[in-house]
Amino acid sequence: MKIGIIGTGAIGGTLAKKLAAAGHDVKVTNASAEHELANTAARLGVAHASLRQVVSGVDVVIVSIPTNAIAELPKDLFSGVPDNVIVVDTSNHYPTRDGEMNVFNEKLESVWVSEQLGRPVIKAFNNLLAHSLEHSGKAKGEPERVAMAISGDDEKARRVISTLVDDAGFDPVDNGSLSESWRHQPGMPGYCTELNASELKQALVDKDGIKGKGASLRDKSMEIFTGLTATPTHEEILTILRSLFPTNPKQHNAILEKADSAS
Ligand SMILES: NC(=O)c1ccc[n+]([C@@H]2O[C@H](COP(=O)([O-])OP(=O)(O)OC[C@H]3O[C@@H](n4cnc5c(N)ncnc54)[C@H](OP(=O)(O)O)[C@@H]3O)[C@@H](O)[C@H]2O)c1
User: Fold this and answer.
1) Taking 70 as the threshold, does the pLDDT of residue 26 lie above it?
2) Which stretches of the chain are DSSP H helices?
3) CB of 248 closer than 6 A to ligand 1?
4) Which residue in 20, 59, 179, 186 could disulfide with 218, CB within 3.0 to 4.6 Å?
5) Helix (H, G, I), strand (E, B) or coil at 213
6) Across the strands, what pairs with 90?
7) Maximum pairwise Cα distance, the chain
8) Out of the domains of life, which is the source (predicted)?
9) What are the CA-CA distances from residue 220 to residues 94, 117, 192, 239 (Å)?
10) For position 229, which CATH number holds?
11) Which tens digits make up the pLDDT trace of 44-73?
12) Phi/psi of residue 61, each to 5°?
């Protein structure tokens, strides 16, 4: 596939590398001057382009920039882009980075992104930590392959993006329409807790009345992280995020396995 990526950071840059390695034709852009962008693209092993060029002549555009920067993109960026080009949103709102965005008290993050871009979006690649994206991928069929959630209103587009998730080394889990995308926003049990596909499916179900609690649980996790005296390891970050929910599948299943082996 021909893929344009806006953003070459921890997520966009890693996706560029992985999708190019999987045989896709990838071009990237970022907010830097042209010579810096060219160096970054060369390091990633992909082509570089201007913002306008990166959305042109592609099958998929992946928008992977901070949430507050999405509002700054030109409002007509997608006006000449054919309707069948799929737009993917990887963003997660963090007030500590983006500032408070009160719009999210009433609106789902990717619904707002879709309005900003003037295009339907598929929310994907948002529910794994950058470290997981870079290091936890596995070949299809390998045991304990980590899973990623995908939401969006177009079923065919969700299927196409599922193939990219697979190419990046992860099991895609179809979470249905964009209105359900809160289930993999920050603070949710399926958010950045490195679950396999069956665990992620369990985590995407609202067993505990968690709808609407994501923002406060996200902020609680940020408080825990800022209170730490040493930089947490990746495993420690996962443990903290899993601990937000007693029923987090990874945690819950481990407790059950321990109880089983003790009896
Ligand atoms: N990091 C994670 O663990 C993680 C996990 C899942 C989802 N996400 C989400 O994915 C998105 C990207 O995160 P990240 O961690 O990759 O961020 P990041 O490392 O800070 O990289 C952000 C990228 O966006 C580019 N950028 C910023 N404003 C831009 C603009 N107006 N036009 C074009 N490019 C612009 C930056 O360009 P320069 O390089 O030129 O500065 C940079 O390449 C965020 O919404 C984040 O919440 C992050």
Assistant:
1) yes
2) 12-21, 34-44, 51-54, 67-70, 95-98, 109-117, 130-135, 155-167, 197-203, 214-227, 234-243, 249-262
3) no
4) 186
5) coil
6) none
7) 64
8) Bacteria
9) 12, 30, 15, 14
10) 3.40.50.720
11) 999 999 999 999 999 999 999 999 999 999
12) -115, 125
Which atom of ligand 1 is closest in space to residue 37's alpha carbon?
A: 40
In the reported structure, the alpha carbon of residue 96 is separated from the centroid of ligand 1 by a whole-number distance in angstroms of 14
Establish whether residue 130 lines the binding site of ligand 1, counting it when its CB lies within 6 angstroms of any ligand atom.
Answer: yes
Helix%, strand%, coil% for the chain, nearest 5: 45, 15, 45
Query: Where does residue 171 fall: left (phi above 0), alpha (psi -120 to 50 degrees), or beta otherwise?
Result: beta
Residue 103 and residue 112 in contact, taking contact as beta carbons nearer than 8 Å: yes
- Residue 123 parent element (H or E): strand 122-123
Domain of residue 157: give its range. 2-262
Which pLDDT belongs to residue 252? 64
| Nearest-angstrom CA–CA distance, 100 and 249 | 31
Number of compact structural domains in the chain? 1
Q: Is 16 in the pocket of ligand 1 (CB under 6 A)?
A: no
For residue 173, how far is the Cα from the chain centroid? 13
Nearest CA-CA partner of 176 in 109, 115, 217, 124: 124
Question: End-to-end distance of the chain based on CA atoms, in angstroms?
Answer: 52
**Token duo for residue 179:** 């209105």
- Look at residue 257 and tell me whether its pLDDT is greater than 80: no
Residue 229 confidence (pLDDT): 94
Q: Which two tokens stand for residue 27?
A: 């071009």
| Cβ neighbours for 109, distance < 8 A, ≥ 6 positions apart | 67, 91, 92, 93, 123, 181, 185
Binding site membership of 31 for ligand 1 (Cβ less than 6 Å): yes
